[in-house]
Amino acid sequence: MQIMTWLKNIKDCRYFKSLKLFFLALFLTQCLTLQSVTQPSTGKAGEIFTAVVQTQIRPAADEPGARLIIGFLAPKSWNARVNTTMTYTSNIGNGTMSRVPANLTPDGGSDKPWEEALIDKAGYGGNYIRDLDWVVFQSDLAYNIRNGQGDINIRTTVKTKIGPQNMVVQLGYVAATTTMDIDNSSQWGYKFSDCFTVTDGQGPVIDFCSPQLSLIEPTQNMDNDIVTINFDADAVPNALTNADKVYLCARGYTQNNQEIEVCGQEMKAQMTPLGARKWRLDLWPRGYFNVPNNQILDRIEYSFTDASGTKQVLDKGDAGKRFVYKFACE
Amino acid sequence: MKIIRHTKSTTLLLIALLIGLASCSKEEMPFIEPPKSIEGNWKIVKATRNGVDLTQRISFNEFRLVFDKGNTYRLNNLLPFIVSKNGNWAFDDPAYPFAISFTPEGSETATKVKTFSFPIVNGSRQLIISFSPGCDSNVYEYTLEPTTE
Predict the structure, then answer these.
(1) 3-class SS at A27?
(2) Class of domain A30-201
(3) Measured between alpha carbons, how far is A115 from B16 in angstroms, rounded to an integer?
(4) In this structure, what DSSP letter does residue A218 have?
């Protein structure tokens, strides 16, 4: 009875015509669904990683010259732009895929190229470290999608080489087409994987999936890069949880084991507050440690201190060892 | 009589036309694009790392790239840059530059920037260069403008 009354109210509503048009438009809109992603939960550094992305398109309008788009979010150190291949099988044909042209923008409101647009549209999922890239491929063949043709089911295989570092990371996937509107959520889709673990690689585990007391961005640097040292005083309880000033106390080690320490309450060591008990310091290691021209930094060890220099945060919070960062590239 | 007069007029017209044509000598007016000058001091007005704007996060104010006469350059108040020592620079094409390279003192190898553009923005010439001074995966883009400071 209540439903009947509600329906009558709707019918009487002066917006009924608009609603009808809205539902008609909705019905006629192309619909793309990223149905599932299948990938392993672990892999070894340097191995080939394979994921399968299942996509369905339900055509409700003519879309001439449409190409399938698949985006893949991976750590920069994987160099996925170079190391990734994609192929697909579907009920309208099978084929290979190639990276989208650098200047190609998605259909819809974004004027950025695909790989940048996906940072805005899909983001980085649950990764606390943003040192990842969206890599976007399109089908080499274009298809004329016709209004009323049956559902198109596409199975895309993504293959890439796992990077060299030990890590735990969420990988991301986007499905879209070159002609459908990525401002319309029913016309494209994205999913992030559960955290994927890389073993048998180099260095300490970089955990993208958990809040970290400290992390360094980008993840790979040499001493001639600009390095961002982050400190999250909220990650675990520690002596600097309520500090109003935080300083970096760091020691650089050159490749011939010379030690250079910068550990005081000086301006250049003062970290910038970002709010929510998060702090950041950007530095150029060669300049910061005044490294002689004939030497190269191998690593830095560091902790965080308060304005008095008496409170110190180490890798386990109030205990543990100094954080260690080794300079290296892939 | 009428035919003779008509023939005379036609002949006169043809002669005038020939004289006119002969006077149209072809004059070459080649347009030569002058070499682009970047002589002077340049400061960083924008800096990004992997697309993230670092301009306000680290002090770029003191860095100067100085192009002297004779294709030499100097770096003052060094920051990460394509080279770390003073030396010589060169455009690939002085009139239509699409690339710039730097050869530090003591080196025989020129290092090219990854990308280079040389636009005029708000009436001022800019140098926009990208390069990787550390890991290849980290790409920096500096936008430089001339300065008298």
Answers:
(1) helix
(2) mainly beta
(3) 69
(4) S
Determine whether domain A211-326 maps to CATH 2.30.30.
no
Q: Tell me if B86 sits within 8 A of B73, measured CB to CB.
A: yes
| The 3-state secondary structure of A140-177, one letter per residue | CCCEEECCCCCCEEEEEEEEEECCCEEEEECCEEEEEE
Would you say A262 and A268 are in contact if contact means Cβ atoms under 8 Å apart? yes
pLDDT tens readout for residues A8-61: 444 444 444 444 444 444 444 569 999 999 999 999 999 999 999 999 999 988
pTM for the full model?
Answer: 0.70
Residue among A240, A238, A242, A232 nearest A211 (CA): A232
**Which chain A residues have any C-beta within 8 angstroms of a chain B C-beta?**
76-77, 79, 116, 218, 220-226, 272, 280, 282-284, 286-287, 293, 329-330
| Sequence ranges of the domains in chain A | 30-201, 211-326
User: How big is the A-B interface in CB pairs under 8 Å?
Assistant: 54
CA distance linking residue A30 with residue B7, whole number of Å: 80
A218–B84 CB contact, under 8 Å: no
Total residues found in chain B within this entry: 149
Q: Residues of chain B whose C-beta is under 8 A from some C-beta in A?
A: 49-51, 54, 57-58, 78-80, 84, 133-138, 140
The CATH number covering residue B81 comes to: 2.40.128
Tokens of A167: 């890590």
Number of H helices, E strands in chain B: 1, 12
B61 in any annotated domain = yes
- Whether A211 and A218 have beta carbons less than 8 Å apart is answered as no
- Closest to B86 (Cα-Cα) out of B68, B99, B98: B68
pLDDT of A259-282, one tens digit each?
999 998 999 999 999 999 999 999
